[in-house]
UniProtKB/TrEMBL annotation:
EC id: 4.2.1.24
Protein keywords: Heme biosynthesis, Lyase, Porphyrin biosynthesis
Gene Ontology terms, MF aspect: metal ion binding; porphobilinogen synthase activity
Residues spanning the signal sequence: none
Record-given protein name: Delta-aminolevulinic acid dehydratase
Catalyzed reactions: 2 5-aminolevulinate = porphobilinogen + 2 H2O + H(+)
Broadest EC class assigned to this enzyme: lyase
GO annotation terms (biological process): protoporphyrinogen IX biosynthetic process
């Protein structure tokens, strides 16, 4: 989706952050690797 321009990485990370803020204990996603890299870099 990111490669096709349908989604931006920042949008995905914001969505995952919102799930966590809403109380999710875990999140399963196809974007886990990209999200982990973004978080490691400090966003």
């Amino acid at each position: 989706a990111i490669q096709n321009g349908w989604l931006a990485e920042s949008v995905i990370l914001e969505s995952l952050t919102a799930f966590k803020r809403a109380g999710a204990d875990g999140i399963l996603t196809y974007f886990a690797k990209q999200a982990a890299e973004q978080l490691r870099r400090g966003r």
